[in-house]
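Appendix B, Record 12. Input sequence as logged:
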Amino acid sequence: MSNTLLRIYPSELKMPFELRKSNTGCIELVNKTDQRVAFKVKTTNPKKYAVRPTSGIVPPGGSCGITITMQAPKEIPQDYQCKDKFLIQSVIVQEGITHKDIVPEMFGRAPGRVVEEFKLRVIYIPANPPSPVPEGDEEEIADMEVDHEVFRQSMIDAASRQEYASGPQASHDKDASTVKSEVVKYVAENKKLQQELEQLSERRQSLGGFSRTFVLLVFLLSVLVGYWMTGRKV
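Logged structural output:
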Protein backbone atom coordinates (compact mmCIF):
# COMPACT_ATOMS: atom_id res chain seq x y z
CA MET A 1 0.00 0.00 0.00
CA SER A 2 1.45 3.37 -1.02
CA ASN A 3 1.56 5.97 1.74
CA THR A 4 0.40 9.45 0.83
CA LEU A 5 0.47 10.97 4.32
CA LEU A 6 3.85 10.09 5.83
CA ARG A 7 7.17 9.17 4.37
CA ILE A 8 8.77 6.62 6.69
CA TYR A 9 12.49 6.10 6.74
CA PRO A 10 14.01 3.56 6.81
CA SER A 11 11.67 1.02 5.29
CA GLU A 12 13.23 -1.67 7.51
CA LEU A 13 14.23 -1.27 11.13
CA LYS A 14 17.88 -2.33 11.37
CA MET A 15 18.51 -3.03 15.00
CA PRO A 16 22.08 -3.53 16.36
CA PHE A 17 22.28 -6.91 18.05
CA GLU A 18 24.58 -7.75 20.94
CA LEU A 19 24.10 -10.33 23.67
CA ARG A 20 23.27 -8.97 27.11
CA LYS A 21 23.28 -5.38 25.87
CA SER A 22 20.39 -3.15 24.86
CA ASN A 23 20.61 -1.22 21.59
CA THR A 24 18.58 1.47 19.88
CA GLY A 25 17.23 2.10 16.40
CA CYS A 26 15.53 5.17 14.93
CA ILE A 27 12.68 5.90 12.53
CA GLU A 28 11.92 9.23 10.89
CA LEU A 29 8.42 10.32 9.92
CA VAL A 30 7.98 13.12 7.38
CA ASN A 31 4.60 14.71 6.67
CA LYS A 32 4.09 14.78 2.91
CA THR A 33 0.92 16.86 3.10
CA ASP A 34 -0.15 20.38 4.03
CA GLN A 35 -2.33 19.06 6.84
CA ARG A 36 -1.67 17.82 10.34
CA VAL A 37 -1.13 14.05 10.53
CA ALA A 38 -1.45 11.96 13.69
CA PHE A 39 0.44 8.69 14.02
CA LYS A 40 0.56 5.71 16.33
CA VAL A 41 3.25 3.00 16.59
CA LYS A 42 2.42 -0.63 17.37
CA THR A 43 4.61 -3.73 17.61
CA THR A 44 4.10 -7.48 17.67
CA ASN A 45 6.37 -7.77 20.74
CA PRO A 46 5.62 -4.82 23.07
CA LYS A 47 7.50 -6.39 26.04
CA LYS A 48 10.73 -6.47 24.07
CA TYR A 49 10.80 -2.89 22.79
CA ALA A 50 10.47 0.54 24.33
CA VAL A 51 9.09 3.11 21.83
CA ARG A 52 9.36 6.87 22.35
CA PRO A 53 7.01 8.41 21.43
CA THR A 54 4.37 5.82 20.70
CA SER A 55 2.07 8.45 19.17
CA GLY A 56 2.09 12.08 18.13
CA ILE A 57 1.20 14.70 15.52
CA VAL A 58 3.42 15.73 12.62
CA PRO A 59 2.81 19.29 11.38
CA PRO A 60 2.44 20.02 7.64
CA GLY A 61 5.80 19.43 5.92
CA GLY A 62 7.36 18.66 9.30
CA SER A 63 9.06 15.57 10.65
CA CYS A 64 9.21 13.51 13.82
CA GLY A 65 11.81 11.05 15.09
CA ILE A 66 10.93 7.83 16.87
CA THR A 67 13.43 6.00 19.07
CA ILE A 68 13.06 2.25 19.54
CA THR A 69 15.13 0.54 22.24
CA MET A 70 15.43 -3.24 22.32
CA GLN A 71 15.99 -5.00 25.62
CA ALA A 72 19.29 -6.84 26.07
CA PRO A 73 18.91 -10.24 24.36
CA LYS A 74 19.90 -13.30 26.36
CA GLU A 75 20.44 -15.64 23.40
CA ILE A 76 20.96 -15.55 19.66
CA PRO A 77 17.85 -16.50 17.69
CA GLN A 78 17.95 -19.33 15.20
CA ASP A 79 19.53 -18.32 11.88
CA TYR A 80 20.00 -14.84 13.37
CA GLN A 81 16.53 -13.96 12.14
CA CYS A 82 13.97 -11.75 13.85
CA LYS A 83 10.24 -12.15 13.38
CA ASP A 84 9.26 -8.92 15.14
CA LYS A 85 7.40 -6.24 13.18
CA PHE A 86 6.24 -2.67 13.69
CA LEU A 87 3.08 -1.05 12.40
CA ILE A 88 2.80 2.71 11.93
CA GLN A 89 -0.72 4.08 11.50
CA SER A 90 -1.37 7.61 10.30
CA VAL A 91 -4.49 9.73 9.83
CA ILE A 92 -5.29 13.38 9.09
CA VAL A 93 -6.58 15.32 12.08
CA GLN A 94 -8.24 18.71 12.38
CA GLU A 95 -6.80 21.85 13.86
CA GLY A 96 -6.94 22.00 17.61
CA ILE A 97 -6.21 18.30 18.06
CA THR A 98 -3.21 17.84 20.32
CA HIS A 99 -1.10 14.85 21.35
CA LYS A 100 -3.24 14.41 24.46
CA ASP A 101 -6.33 14.01 22.30
CA ILE A 102 -4.97 11.00 20.42
CA VAL A 103 -6.91 7.83 21.26
CA PRO A 104 -6.91 4.36 19.66
CA GLU A 105 -10.38 4.98 18.16
CA MET A 106 -8.90 7.66 15.89
CA PHE A 107 -7.14 4.91 13.90
CA GLY A 108 -10.16 2.66 13.55
CA ARG A 109 -11.97 2.17 10.26
CA ALA A 110 -14.88 4.55 9.77
CA PRO A 111 -16.76 6.06 6.82
CA GLY A 112 -14.91 9.04 5.36
CA ARG A 113 -11.78 8.35 7.37
CA VAL A 114 -8.57 7.30 5.63
CA VAL A 115 -6.12 5.44 7.85
CA GLU A 116 -2.81 4.51 6.29
CA GLU A 117 -0.62 1.74 7.65
CA PHE A 118 3.04 0.99 7.11
CA LYS A 119 4.72 -2.18 8.30
CA LEU A 120 8.41 -2.45 9.17
CA ARG A 121 10.20 -5.69 9.88
CA VAL A 122 13.14 -5.83 12.28
CA ILE A 123 16.53 -6.88 10.93
CA TYR A 124 19.42 -7.63 13.25
CA ILE A 125 22.81 -6.18 12.34
CA PRO A 126 26.18 -6.56 14.14
CA ALA A 127 26.61 -4.04 16.95
CA ASN A 128 30.25 -3.42 15.89
CA PRO A 129 30.32 -3.73 12.09
CA PRO A 130 33.68 -3.93 10.27
CA SER A 131 35.10 -0.94 8.45
CA PRO A 132 33.35 -0.23 5.12
CA VAL A 133 36.11 -1.53 2.87
CA PRO A 134 35.20 -3.57 -0.24
CA GLU A 135 35.86 -7.26 0.07
CA GLY A 136 38.38 -7.27 -2.76
CA ASP A 137 40.28 -4.38 -1.19
CA GLU A 138 40.30 -6.13 2.18
CA GLU A 139 41.82 -9.23 0.61
CA GLU A 140 44.40 -7.13 -1.20
CA ILE A 141 45.25 -5.22 1.98
CA ALA A 142 45.49 -8.45 3.93
CA ASP A 143 47.85 -9.90 1.32
CA MET A 144 49.97 -6.75 1.40
CA GLU A 145 50.18 -6.91 5.18
CA VAL A 146 51.18 -10.56 5.10
CA ASP A 147 53.79 -9.90 2.44
CA HIS A 148 55.10 -6.97 4.42
CA GLU A 149 55.37 -9.06 7.55
CA VAL A 150 57.12 -11.86 5.68
CA PHE A 151 59.50 -9.39 4.08
CA ARG A 152 60.20 -7.67 7.39
CA GLN A 153 60.81 -11.03 9.10
CA SER A 154 63.11 -12.16 6.31
CA MET A 155 65.06 -8.92 6.62
CA ILE A 156 65.36 -9.41 10.38
CA ASP A 157 66.58 -12.99 9.89
CA ALA A 158 69.08 -11.88 7.26
CA ALA A 159 70.36 -9.12 9.53
CA SER A 160 70.64 -11.58 12.40
CA ARG A 161 72.61 -13.99 10.25
CA GLN A 162 74.86 -11.17 9.03
CA GLU A 163 75.39 -9.95 12.57
CA TYR A 164 76.22 -13.47 13.70
CA ALA A 165 78.65 -13.92 10.81
CA SER A 166 80.32 -10.57 11.41
CA GLY A 167 80.20 -10.93 15.16
CA PRO A 168 81.03 -14.19 16.91
CA GLN A 169 82.28 -15.92 13.75
CA ALA A 170 84.51 -13.01 12.75
CA SER A 171 85.84 -12.78 16.28
CA HIS A 172 86.47 -16.53 16.26
CA ASP A 173 88.32 -16.30 12.93
CA LYS A 174 90.39 -13.40 14.23
CA ASP A 175 91.30 -15.30 17.40
CA ALA A 176 92.18 -18.40 15.39
CA SER A 177 94.38 -16.36 13.06
CA THR A 178 96.14 -14.73 16.03
CA VAL A 179 96.77 -18.08 17.70
CA LYS A 180 98.05 -19.55 14.46
CA SER A 181 100.52 -16.69 13.94
CA GLU A 182 101.71 -17.00 17.54
CA VAL A 183 102.23 -20.74 17.12
CA VAL A 184 104.22 -20.20 13.94
CA LYS A 185 106.31 -17.57 15.72
CA TYR A 186 106.96 -19.86 18.69
CA VAL A 187 107.87 -22.77 16.42
CA ALA A 188 110.35 -20.58 14.49
CA GLU A 189 111.91 -19.29 17.70
CA ASN A 190 112.10 -22.82 19.11
CA LYS A 191 113.75 -24.06 15.93
CA LYS A 192 116.24 -21.18 16.01
CA LEU A 193 116.97 -21.91 19.65
CA GLN A 194 117.55 -25.57 18.91
CA GLN A 195 119.98 -24.63 16.11
CA GLU A 196 121.90 -22.33 18.48
CA LEU A 197 122.06 -25.09 21.08
CA GLU A 198 123.40 -27.55 18.52
CA GLN A 199 126.04 -25.03 17.37
CA LEU A 200 127.04 -24.36 20.98
CA SER A 201 127.29 -28.09 21.65
CA GLU A 202 129.45 -28.57 18.59
CA ARG A 203 131.72 -25.73 19.72
CA ARG A 204 132.04 -27.23 23.18
CA GLN A 205 132.86 -30.64 21.74
CA SER A 206 135.42 -29.06 19.43
CA LEU A 207 137.06 -27.12 22.24
CA GLY A 208 137.00 -30.13 24.52
CA GLY A 209 138.67 -32.38 21.91
CA PHE A 210 141.44 -29.85 21.16
CA SER A 211 142.29 -29.47 24.85
CA ARG A 212 142.63 -33.23 25.40
CA THR A 213 144.78 -33.60 22.29
CA PHE A 214 146.99 -30.72 23.28
CA VAL A 215 147.46 -32.09 26.79
CA LEU A 216 148.29 -35.51 25.39
CA LEU A 217 150.88 -34.06 23.02
CA VAL A 218 152.39 -32.01 25.83
CA PHE A 219 152.54 -35.11 28.01
CA LEU A 220 154.18 -37.16 25.31
CA LEU A 221 156.67 -34.44 24.59
CA SER A 222 157.47 -34.19 28.29
CA VAL A 223 158.04 -37.91 28.47
CA LEU A 224 160.22 -37.86 25.43
CA VAL A 225 162.20 -34.87 26.66
CA GLY A 226 162.66 -36.48 30.06
CA TYR A 227 163.69 -39.75 28.52
CA TRP A 228 166.10 -37.97 26.24
CA MET A 229 167.57 -35.98 29.12
CA THR A 230 167.93 -39.10 31.23
CA GLY A 231 169.62 -40.95 28.42
CA ARG A 232 172.16 -38.23 27.95
CA LYS A 233 173.04 -38.19 31.64
CA VAL A 234 173.69 -41.85 31.60
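The longest strand covers residues 116-126.
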